[in-house]
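Lab notebook, bench 4. Still working through the backlog of constructs that have no structural model yet. Next entry is a single chain of 482 residues. Request: give me the structure tokens for it.
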Amino acid sequence: MSQPTAKPATGPFPDGFLWGGATAANQLEGAYAEGGKGLSIQDVMPHGIMTPPTEGPTQENLKQVAIDFYHRYAEDIALFAEMGFKVFRFSIAWSRIFPNGDDAEPNEEGLAFYARVLDELEKHGIEPLVTISHYETPLNLARTYGGWTNRALIGFYEHYCRVLFERFGSRVKYWLTFNEINSITHEPFISGGIPVPRAELTEQDLYQAVHHELVASARATRLAHELIPDARIGCMIVAVPVYPLTPSPDDVVKAMDLAHASYAFGDIHCRGAYPGYLLRHFRDNGIELDITDQDREDLTHTVDFVSFSYYMSICESADPRAEKGPGNIIGGVPNPTLEASEWGWQIDPQGLRVIINDYWERWQKPLFIVENGIGAKDVLVEAEGSLTVEDDYRIDYMNDHLVQVREAIADGAEVLGYTSWGCIDIVSATTAQLSKRYGFIYVDRNDDGTGTLERYRKKSFGWYRDVIASNGAVVDNGVTVA
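Model written out:
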């Protein structure tokens, strides 16, 4: 099924556009118990977000070794440089800096590791984009304090941020406070370190945790502006366009309500106060948050830019008979006009143009696409005397999405850059598999933990290198996802 193609944009991307790739510490570093690192919630999630956490680390948790970036970072960064990366998004593992989360002093071995990573990036002229908290709350903060339901975490997080800004502020220009912060309403453990199943978590406790994270994000923003005024600090949200399943006004209102659930996080980060529709939700559901005057002042410290992940769009319907779709994290009804990936994520390149325009018009803040890509079961084959992956499906997918980014820029949106998700194969967050691969670089490791960890360039490696070298001029308007 081919996607409708909008009028082609012309010309390359803007000068200074930041091309690169994105990763997360828990999905690529490994070395989960090395260098003074403490346990994070990821160490008790051997099967990703699809199953409940275990009591402790287990041998089948692929993230314990992941792809061994902790020991192979120089080799991997050299491959990113070969592709021409202008920027590399990575996260700092909170428990590598503060093993328990509430420690008085940071772990110097952890800081030294990230200093070495920054050294390597600087050597290759690659700009770092650092996520401060990416789905790996220190386990002690989850079990002892109840995660972000506890106000104490605001102070622990602020202390952590201060250490990062003081140590690395002169070396890092772009910072993100929390990865996909709006996902906490769907996945409270991975996103908020809350050790209570979603079905058992009260709306009161959930939104109190949301509030604490929002205040912490605002405090980090204020602190960054004070300590490193030349830096730019942004929020990061899951971007999912919500279409009404039919033209029925009931479906339109239902889609609006679902969209509000994600808009709220951007509205607060960009406007500095709770929006009216969220306050109404609180009133209608008897939710009374503990919000101090200091909290309200903190929230006025707004972000410099909005970053987001984009993988899919969804539909919504007021009809209770409409079936929810598999795979889509925030629910929704499958769109009958779209096809889906192997994992049920619907493929909608034009939805990316829709969301960029939507966010730009709503917030008037620069935008940064920091995750986009397609997970697939790649097959390593021999071609011209070397091992590779013939991943034309990935090239088609990314090409079609980049056409729509260019369209959105032509529409007038300010877009800072694009970092493809899992630019090197990493462990999946949702399933904890290595067979769900996103990268331009194949890593020889399997779901059972076997493999050499050798790296191989996929066909998409050369394609993305050419995209970057031409500043997007080689992106083909004529290709569509079949």
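Notes after review: The longest helix spans residues 203-227. Confidence is low (pLDDT under 50) at residues 1-9. Flag for follow-up if needed.
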